[in-house]
Amino acid sequence: MTHPEERPLDPVDSLDPFASEDVDAPREPGGGARTPVSPTVPGPADGAWAGEAWPDEEFGPAESAATVIVTHDGTGRHHFGAGSPPAAPHRPRQAREGPIWAEESDLVRRTFVPPKGYLRAQGMMSRQLILLTGEARSGKRTLALHLMQDQHVESVIALDPDEDLTTRRIQRGRGYVVDSVGADALAGYTRGDLELLRRRLVERGSVLVATAVVGAPMLGVWAPWHVPCARPDPVQVLHSHLTDRLGPGWQRRHLDLVDEDIAELVRADGGRPARAARIAAELAGFADGGFPRTQVLNALRDREHAAVAGWLRAHPACADWALMIAAAVFEGHDYGIVAERAAALRAMLAEHLPASAGASADGWPPQPRSARLDLIDATAVAADATRDGARYRLDVVRFNRPRWAASVREHVWDVYPDLRDPLVEWLAATPRRPADVHRVAARAAGAFMAGGGGIGRWARSTGGPRPVVRGAPWRSRR
Length: 478
Hints:
Layout: H1 56-59, E1 66-72, E2 78-83, E3 98-99, H2 102-111, H3 118-124, E4 129-133, H4 140-150, E5 156-159, E6 175-181, H5 183-187, H6 191-204, E7 207-212, E8 226-228, H7 234-246, H8 250-253, H9 260-267, H10 273-287, H11 293-300, H12 304-314, H13 318-329, H14 335-352, H15 369-375, E9 378-387, E10 390-399, H16 404-415, H17 420-428, H18 436-450, E11 466-471
Parallel strand pairs: 4-7, 4-8, 5-6, 6-7
Antiparallel strand pairs: 1-2, 1-11, 3-5, 9-10
Region (Disordered): 1-47, 456-478
């Protein structure tokens, strides 16, 4: 099984690693005690955003600007997070830090499939310090979170993989997950360091699970705490996610939903759990009658990537690209949001990647809405929304083919690295105020960057941390 590979962009306390271990509460920069962060931060699935107020622990006041940080964990993936302003005394908060969201924890609980060796990992949890190793994207983070659930650890915090664990102030009764630790970071610890860390965990009644993509020869002093991890059966992961989406008994209602063609697709590419979960989502849409089976199979075989490349070549105008990308990110939202975000992206692309002097200006004469939707093969579906007792008419944008939005996002990021910084800046700048409609869009932008397989799946290059943009706190899902 799988779940969002990247940590959501929730603010987290920069704890003083040298503070007394007898004090559990985080400290304010001025020295005063503060109420600890909630063990599990509610996310969109919990209905916490149904009202007009934004949760302070997730966004904070509008004036408290944040710095978006891009970090690389050595496995080829980017991670995005909100950091303190440059003048703040604490170090920047990294993307994988923070309390585990309730929606991620609940998804793990509902869809977890035990991999081979799970019983050994359960037994090793009694040591309160373990290292899970395995292939990239093999579900190690999911396994770590489920091991915490087995131990009834209610307060779980994700730590930055580059943090020095020997200076971490261990809080009482906490679970710590350190995902995707690099080989160099693992090699930097001595046996004495790890023994001291384990004793501190035992004294505080806490547990720490680290994950890494390293081979046995590189483990060194970690060998006593090492548990190798295999990928779970991808077909079982598929069935688990289909049960979560369609409910128990879906096999009786949809007899031919999972056949040999689907099983072959799930096992392709090494049978990654993330792939199985994504296919389950597409099949659930097919089961609901959204698209013909042939279209779903073609999309699952990733034939859409070639179609995306062809569309981009056939429509080289910046305005057309901006509209397609905006619709891919904000599919399912009102046309007004898509159009406004497309205009903002076009302006940002012009600023970062100015056209040559001989390039012709595009965008004039203006196109009617129907023509713009036809251009990207999308439809505006009439819908209603009620807020504050008032009923609104929406024209929700939907593509006319399955998984097209995801294919556009993945292709643009993978093939055009020069667009990555402008895209991150554009997403971070999604307005929150004054109109409520923009707050809905901000949730979509934040959820896309932070949530299940969001923008992190796009990243492929490596490098060091670098600030990208200043903006109001935000977050989202794909």
